[in-house]
Amino acid sequence: MAHSAFRALGDDLARSVLVRAPFSSHAAVRAVCRRFDTLIRSPEFGVQRREAGCVERGVVVAGGCARASSWRRTAACWL
User: What's the pTM value of the predicted model, to 2 decimals?
Assistant: First the structure.
């Protein structure tokens, strides 16, 4: 019943609820259904998170190997 009630919400209202989920929960929330995945991946979602003050400070580390040289990049960013 709760699932069908949430389905009845418009995308704007659903997005405004989802922006309050912590970044660490986004993968789990996206796995719930395609609609949530689409909402969370939309550019509007990031804008609404920033406007709602729900962004979190984080560190992203990416590494890889390109031919003989390897690279690593670390950056602080807002999640």
Answer: 0.62
